[in-house]
Design a protein that fits this description.
Layout: H1 16-31, H2 43-58, H3 64-67, H4 71-88, H5 140-150, E1 167-174, E2 180-185, E3 191-196, E4 200-205, E5 211-216, E6 222-227, E7 233-238, E8 243-247, E9 252-257, E10 264-269, E11 275-280, E12 284-289, E13 295-300, E14 306-311, E15 318-322, E16 327-331, E17 336-341, E18 350-353, E19 359-363, E20 368-372, E21 377-381, E22 390-395, E23 400-405, E24 409-414, E25 420-425, E26 439-444, E27 450-455, E28 459-465
């Protein structure tokens, strides 16, 4: 005989969805009994948050009594903060050490919020049966306020530019019959010379702007000029492939340096050795001995026209910029390349070395860049773009850099920060075309207080600082950059 079967309780069929909801409700009832309610606004907590934010951001002033409280008071305040945190079961964040706190709020030096009541839909597991979290009590605006109170705001590390007075044009000199392409100053700072497309070199008095002398000898436009500080010599180079040495005592050519295969675009003198550097369309920078007229080196390595060059007393002694977008440092002992800089994307038509600092700037149609010497480390770009072909640039000892563009724009920059503090535009002289507004050469005099520009309207313009300008009349409008691009 078989035993009678046990009677089983009937099981009510339930769907999977209903079971999951039941499990979810049990979990919420277990860990958050008030899961369906929203935390009520707590004005005391809001007051503490605001006081913490004020103390954190503006409480860095001097005040020995508030910044260094006694041990007993600080211990009592800490115990009271712990008791308050335990009573309300809230998270307490102490303020930074040394922050200035009002006397009435020393015992409440903590970021405390009320009981942790999550909105519905946030299923977070808490501690001791009641969750502990930072919850904004009065909406999203307080949530942002509490976040900004915790985060430390770092000030911009970009150097603030020095205020410079604006520059103004005070004299226009006319006398050339063609584009004025080059300029050089006398070491005594009494006169300067300019070379033009009319194949002449003119010497002008710096103080009055009067013409003193006209020299003829080239058969093409003159693109480079340099005056020696050791001898009474002046050097000129032009599109006729010729490099000439003028004796200023006799006012005639005493030497010519033959070797370039095409036009000569730039010229520079070595500061300590009797050496002349010339670069041109044959993509070669040639090194000449001034006395013997011999070519010492032909610095070959560029793929296009060498249009800018300057010399230094120490390595690298020769720096050249080219239309192939590169800048090369040369070893003058062996005539070979030391370093090649490829930061630019367009032709490097102008370079300028700072008279005091050990760095230089190079100008291209894409940007103006600063490099550290002697290794050529890239420092930064200028903070604005002139957006034109930059033919020339010059820097004085006060840190004012001027750049001249092909469209007649003359921009002034602060050297340290790269801030463009003035944008001037030359006025084309009557009788010239509007397209003849280009600036081809810039140079400061030896004091750095006067700037001379050579332009395509066949004039020479002289600039100086505005004596009546003050930081109030011409304020500095500077915004630190958020990001600096390498290229």
């Amino acid at each position: 005989m078989l035993a009678p079967a046990l009677e089983m309780e009937p099981v009510e069929p339930q769907s999977l969805k209903k079971l999951s909801f039941k499990s979810l409700k049990r979990a919420l009832d277990l860990f958050s009994p008030v899961h369906g309610q929203i935390a009520p606004p707590d004005p005391e907590s809001k007051k503490m948050r605001i006081s913490y934010k004020l103390n954190f951001e503006y409480g860095g002033g001097s005040g020995s009594e508030d910044q260094v409280p006694k041990r007993k008071e600080s211990g009592a305040a800490q115990n009271q903060g712990q008791q308050a945190a335990g009573a309300s079961n809230a998270l307490a964040l102490p303020g930074p050490e040394g922050s200035k706190i009002p006397p009435m709020e020393k015992s409440q030096n903590a970021l405390t919020v009320g009981p942790s009541l999550r909105p519905q839909g946030l299923n977070d597991v808490g501690l001791h049966g009641k969750g502990t979290a930072i919850i904004s009590a009065s909406g999203s605006s307080d949530r942002n306020l509490s976040t900004s109170a915790i985060m430390e705001r770092l000030p911009s590390r970009w150097p603030r530019p020095v205020w410079h007075p604006p520059w103004k044009n005070y004299r226009v000199i006319s006398g050339h019959l063609g584009w004025v392409r080059s300029i050089a100053f006398d070491p005594s700072n009494q006169w300067f010379c300019t070379g033009s497309a009319d194949r002449t070199i003119k010497i002008w008095d710096l103080a009055s702007g009067r013409l003193k002398l006209t020299l003829t000898g080239h058969i093409e436009q003159i693109r480079g000029l340099a005056v020696s500080s050791k001898h009474t010599y002046m050097f000129s180079a032009g599109d006729d492939k010729q490099v000439k040495c003028w004796d200023l005592e006799q006012n005639k050519v005493i030497r010519s340096y033959h070797g370039h295969l095409s036009g000569v675009y730039c010229l520079a003198l070595h500061p300590t050795i009797d050496i002349l550097l010339t670069g041109g369309r044959d993509s070669v920078c040639r090194v000449w001995d001034i006395r013997s007229k011999m070519q010492i080196f032909a610095l070959s390595g560029h793929d296009n026209t060498v249009c800018s060059v300057f010399a230094r007393p120490t390595d690298p002694q020769v720096v050249t910029g080219s239309h192939d977008t590169t800048i090369k440092f040369w070893d003058l002992r062996h005539g070979k390349t030391m370093t090649t800089l490829t930061n630019h994307k367009k032709s490097v038509r102008a370079m300028a070395q700072h008279p005091k600092e050990n760095c230089f700037a190079s100008a291209s149609a894409d940007n103006i860049k600063k490099f550290q010497l002697p290794r050529g480390e890239f420092l930064h770009n200028m903070l604005s773009q002139q957006k034109t072909i930059i033919n020339t640039m010059a820097v004085n000892e006060e840190g004012v850099m001027a750049t001249g563009g092909d469209n007649g724009s003359l921009w002034f920059w602060d050297w340290k920060s790269g801030h463009n503090f003035q944008q001037a535009h030359t006025i084309v002289q009557p009788g010239s075309l509007e397209s003849e507004a280009g600036i081809y050469a810039l140079s400061y005099d030896l004091t750095g207080s006067r700037l001379v520009s050579c332009e395509a309207d066949k004039t020479i313009k002289m600039w100086k600082e505005d004596e009546l300008a003050t930081p109030e009349t011409h304020p500095l409008n500077f915004k630190p950059p958020k990001d600096i691009r390498r290229f």
